[in-house]
Amino acid sequence: MNNKPWVLVTGGAKRIGAYLNQEFAKSGKNIVLHYHQAETEALALKTQLEAFNIEVFLWQANLNEPATIEQRFEELLKQVPHIELLINNASVFEQGSLLTSSLAQIQSNLNIHLTSPWLLIQALVKQAIKQNKPCQIINISDANLSHLYTSKAAYFISKKAQETLTELAAIECAPHVRVNAIAPGFVLEATVADTEVSTQISSPLSSKSSAQLATKDINILQRKVPLADLFSAIEFLSKNHSITGQTLQIDGGSHLQCPPYMLKN
Amino acid sequence: MNNKPWVLVTGGAKRIGAYLNQEFAKSGKNIVLHYHQAETEALALKTQLEAFNIEVFLWQANLNEPATIEQRFEELLKQVPHIELLINNASVFEQGSLLTSSLAQIQSNLNIHLTSPWLLIQALVKQAIKQNKPCQIINISDANLSHLYTSKAAYFISKKAQETLTELAAIECAPHVRVNAIAPGFVLEATVADTEVSTQISSPLSSKSSAQLATKDINILQRKVPLADLFSAIEFLSKNHSITGQTLQIDGGSHLQCPPYMLKN
Amino acid sequence: MNNKPWVLVTGGAKRIGAYLNQEFAKSGKNIVLHYHQAETEALALKTQLEAFNIEVFLWQANLNEPATIEQRFEELLKQVPHIELLINNASVFEQGSLLTSSLAQIQSNLNIHLTSPWLLIQALVKQAIKQNKPCQIINISDANLSHLYTSKAAYFISKKAQETLTELAAIECAPHVRVNAIAPGFVLEATVADTEVSTQISSPLSSKSSAQLATKDINILQRKVPLADLFSAIEFLSKNHSITGQTLQIDGGSHLQCPPYMLKN
Amino acid sequence: MNNKPWVLVTGGAKRIGAYLNQEFAKSGKNIVLHYHQAETEALALKTQLEAFNIEVFLWQANLNEPATIEQRFEELLKQVPHIELLINNASVFEQGSLLTSSLAQIQSNLNIHLTSPWLLIQALVKQAIKQNKPCQIINISDANLSHLYTSKAAYFISKKAQETLTELAAIECAPHVRVNAIAPGFVLEATVADTEVSTQISSPLSSKSSAQLATKDINILQRKVPLADLFSAIEFLSKNHSITGQTLQIDGGSHLQCPPYMLKN
Questions:
Q1: pLDDT digits (tens, 9 = 90+) for C188-198
Q2: I need a surface site. Which of B187, C43, D41, D264 has the fewest CB within 10 A?
Q3: A194, pLDDT greater than 70
Q4: Which helix (H) or strand (E) covers residue B238, if one does?
Q5: CB-CB: which of D103, D148, D165 is closest to C168?
Q6: pLDDT, tens only, C212-253
Q7: Residue C190 pLDDT
Q8: How many whole angstroms separate alpha carbon A191 and alpha carbon A187?
């Protein structure tokens, strides 16, 4: 093993997760590449990341099974004994109003957005305190949580609960570990350069893809958020040691005002 | 069956739930008396309530088992075909910090404070809309959620999620059904008159009972909240048809400022 | 002088203020009838109110001149030595975006919505504490402050500051005096029965009168707020002694979701 | 004149303002050095700043006189025709509870924290739009506004109103100009290296200087905020073009939990 610090981005084989892993690899971090079902994408991304002269550890795990996730993560921590940065990014975006959401949908959203991230934080922070090594947590939130959208009720309520998790964890993990979040708005299509991991990324709360929208309707700054603006926010949070419990809205201002494309939700 | 309207208060055999059932019985409502393990208290309360010349229907159900609660509630709705007011009151108050909460604790708090109330709302509102009959929902929140307390992390996060449920449900159930909440602060000992149901009630987030506190330290109004002030708030919300999605802080002002007794949390 | 308690509603000769004065008169309160320029309306209303067998004291004062309002209020308190309830209701609703608001507009909005109410609270609460007599304050807020509307910037910012005033005053005036607010949404046309004080009332942040709107577009409850629902909220806040620092949204749920009629703002 | 971009920090001769001016000068910006009464400090700082090979324009102006500030700023804009970054930093920190604040105190706090910044934003943004040149605004807020402190009521209410100004201005000035804020907590003593501008900086809402506090009582991260962490936040906001209407808490987490030193307020 080299001496480079390890990063774990959950849901790291696709979309924003894959992009972040590429940026971390470029900046010299080793990667725990987490995926659930996207084995093909994960293997392809692993090859790309290794070209940056870093180590990649594949970790297949289902965040919708919190009863097994604790043990799976303990096993991981035995093999990768120190992870400096955990990014809770994995997410599901299914339609479903409050009155029609099934119990299975409610529970999978809570598991993936709240309970499993909580368990990962517990295990990681306990180890960091025990080892007395630096450690940091960043949750990926959603700028549109600032408005009450009803089309994805299980998503909305579980992600709002994740915001509370961010704040309470910031208090509980201080002073050793800082816990923050970024809340992306409508993100530019992620055509990750030099990769097959090309995919369209948009706001989970929207029913339209960004391609269908006029630029001026996206947010008050009238610009899709470039993925680079998310990574610069993560780097900033990593380096500024006076910040904890903060959610950064990287969204062209959509947290301030219902963007027109959300109105029918 | 008489023609009186039915009310369901979850966790209705003890503490605030028992008090509310008594007030509803006095004001001429029939009662679905829900309990989980408190069979003794429930049977005693049933006898008392029936003295007010109303009907009482006992409903034993475990809100920590959402997988069965849907069916149990459907069965109830067949026997009590129209419930006009649902009060989601049942609660658990276990100690446990964010880093030490067990998975079982996290999940039971989510089940009892969020998922089961959500399922009850779904079934009740669908029926009310179908029957085109009046229906209303009031959640029992907690004034101290306004501050970030860490001693009962699973309680805190799941009850905050219930606040989001209140707001989203208010939108989703409008215009037919209104959904509101009351957030009690430190409540006066509930010595329910003429009953064996005497019990001490205090703030779930406090580690002290109200008997241990000087009056001036309880909240800025320096008064324990009388139970009658909770009931008057519920009556007000029931009668004012312009209010939905509102949480009423009935707390002597403790949502405004950390009460001294909470500081060690 | 009779022994009835005195109430002061600022801006009491027209619209919501006139309605509240009528309801207070009916319920046996003496009225300090405040007006600025509406002398004709004030004199007509005085005659009507006196029919309810209560006393009316006319008080002409310009809340846009805080430098004189202190002295004017001291003079009033010499003649009406104990006012039990102050309702800060006076308001101005001029168009003006943040970039085009004139200094005069910014300052008059701050004077009328923030500074003068603050000075009235100071004088009244000091006297109530000195006299050891009951006293209460209710500010009239606006449900649409929950969203960031830009068409009346000076109104918006000064009324938001009034919300902070409500909360800080609740702490500072406790335990002797409670300070709360109600936030009306789109209010029904006030055709005050049996009076000449008939006037159309709507949301200050809207550019449309309520007559121009389809009922379903007004708010999620699809109903204009009856004035009686405002008065019942004021009565509730007056009687429930465990509530302070609370703003009650009496708005058909418009604080939860941008009502369609506001979108162009 | 050189071609370097101009920056204006209000209250730029002392404390945080002086520090920021030094950092901007080091990074190659020209400085409009604003002061009110601190002429001695301003002249000394001007000499230091010019050593970095940039231009310094002294601007004496009283932000407590909004009636003259418009004209004074127009005159400035004629001489320094394009300011790329305005930092509303000037502040007053006088003691005074809500019940004892004088009218003069209320008005000076509103003038300095709200009205004059508002007027500066109006003039600057209009010019930037007209010239079609880049422009940005950052307000200096206060992390402790997250809690309701009562010892400096006029400060508290006017600074909270400035938060609303930040959000409304972000909407109104989009997409051309971004408006954000940073909210410092308890800041490390500013012993600005190589200067005579040495001064102790602390939280305006605290009655203690930072020297009197144990490190562990300052905030949950148990560290005084280094001034460099404020500057890095300003640089981040300047460079990330997807962020507007955001307040960054640079405070060791004190917005999350009442720091012990604030409790007596």
A1: 654 444 333 33
A2: D264
A3: no
A4: helix B227-239
A5: D148
A6: 667 777 899 998 899 999 999 999 999 999 999 999 999 999
A7: 46
A8: 11
- How much is the pTM? 0.94
Token pair 């000091």 is found at C126
Is the distance from CB of D219 to CB of D111 less than 8 angstroms? no
- Element holding B30 (H helix, E strand): strand B30-35
Residue D62, classed as helix, strand or coil, is coil
On the 0-12 / 13-18 / 19+ scale of CB atoms within 10 A, A71 is exposed
- Other beta carbons less than 10 A from residue C53's beta carbon: 10
Report how far residue B109's alpha carbon sits from residue B64's, in angstroms, rounded to the nearest whole number: 8
Chain C residue numbers touching B223 (CB-CB < 8 A): 175, 241-242
Chain A residues inside the 8 Å CB shell of B247:
none
Average pLDDT over residues B94-112: 97
Q: Which residues pair with D88 in a beta bridge?
A: D139
pLDDT reported for residue A257: 84
| Torsion region of B222: left, alpha or beta (phi above 0 gives left; psi -120 to 50 gives alpha) | left
Q: Which structure tokens are listed for B35?
A: 């309990």
Query: What is chain A's mean pLDDT, rounded?
Result: 90
Residue D102 pLDDT grade (very low, low, confident, very high; cuts 50, 70, 90): very high
- Looking at beta carbons, which residues of chain D come within 8 Å of A171? 220, 253, 256-257
* ipTM reported for the complex surpasses 0.90: yes
- Interval D238-246 mean pLDDT: 97
**Higher-confidence position of C195 and D220:** D220
Higher pLDDT, residue A189 or D5: D5
Looking at residue B235, its pLDDT comes to 98
Q: d(Cα B46, Cα B55) in Å, to the nearest integer?
A: 9
In total, chain D counts a number of residues equal to 265
b/e code D76-104 from CB counts within 10 Å (16+ = b): bbeebeebbbbbbbbbbeeebbbbebebe
Residue B84's pLDDT is: 97
In one-letter notation, the amino acid at residue C119 is: L
Nearest-neighbour CA in chain C from B233: distance (Å): 8
Concatenating the DSSP letter of every residue in B61-103 gives --TT-HHHHHHHHHHHHHHS--EEEEEE-------B-TTT--H
C-beta separation of B91 from B114 below 8 A: no
Handedness of CA D210, D213, D214, D215 (dihedral sign): negative
Share of chain C above pLDDT 70, in %: 87
What are the b/e assignments for A218-239, b being 16+ CB within 10 Å? bbbbebbbbbebbbbbbebbbe
Q: Residue B233 has which token pair? A: 């708030």
Spatial distance between the Cα atoms of A90 and A101, rounded to a whole number of angstroms: 20
Q: CB count, 10 Å around CB of A28?
A: 12
D257, D261, D264, best to mutate vs chain B, most B CBs in 10 Å = D257
Q: At what angle do helices B153-173 and B103-110 cross, to 10 degrees?
A: 30
Contact C148 D167 (CB under 8 A): yes
